[in-house]
Write a structure and sequence with these properties.
alpha/beta, Rossmann fold, 5-stranded parallel sheet, 7 helices, 17% strand, FMN binding, FMN, flavoprotein
């Protein structure tokens, strides 16, 4: 199973990218893992026209190639003003159901505080209607992010003592979420194969959500 992680902070050297790198290092149950840091990509603010996705030396084709190949997706967004990243929402509007439809996605919200629920609710409500991604029931909110996930490699007993209980808890929860996402990706690959082999009459009339 091919896992794609997209971190969507608008800042370089972000906490979102740190979380993405930690998840990538601990996702060995997937056969391949790739990470796209959106702020380092060249993507236009989409105007609704397919041709504009490739304006100004856009990286859209390379990103879409990875979206097409993936079996599972992790979307990591910071919470700014109670909302998800504009970069991420722009990308999700550009992506098409023919490329990413019926693929499972794990939503991860990152915040240096104790909030973080609003981006999850926003993405669940209005980010997947047209592209037909399927958000799994589990999600992650990484609170007080500057204080956790700062050591990636396996720890010996002495190092474990300096990792807080909160840090250990979120690491274990990340492991559980990856385990769940893997099984969704396996099941939904079978679903996609079934849908491709059983086309509904005039299915082309319904490319978008209702």
């Amino acid at each position: 199973m091919n896992l794609l992680i997209i971190s969507a902070s608008q800042r370089t050297q972000s906490q979102s990218a740190k979380v993405a790198n930690y998840i990538a290092e601990t996702s060995s149950q997937f056969s391949e893992t790739n990470h796209i840091e959106l702020c380092k990509q060249r993507l236009p603010m989409w105007d609704g026209e397919d041709d504009s996705k490739q304006d100004n030396d856009s990286d859209w084709l390379a990103i879409n190639s990875q979206l097409q190949k993936m079996d599972a997706l992790i979307l990591i967004t910071p919470e700014w003003g109670g909302t998800a990243s504009p970069l991420l929402k722009n990308l999700l509007m550009m992506a098409q159901a023919t490329d990413i439809g019926h693929k499972p996605v794990l939503i991860v919200s990152v915040v240096n505080g104790i909030s973080g629920a609003y981006p999850v609710a926003e993405l669940r409500m209005n980010a997947f209607s047209n592209n037909k991604l399927v958000a799994i029931p589990d999600h992650l909110i990484i609170r007080n992010v500057e204080d956790i996930l700062n050591t990636f490699k396996k720890h010996n007993q002495q190092e474990d003592k300096v990792i807080t209980r909160q840090d250990k808890s979120i690491r274990h929860r990340i492991g559980y979420s990856l385990h769940t996402l893997l099984h969704y990706s396996q099941a939904m690959k079978t679903l996609r194969d079934s849908l491709r082999g059983n086309i509904y009459n005039n299915e082309h009339l319904y490319p978008y959500g209702m």
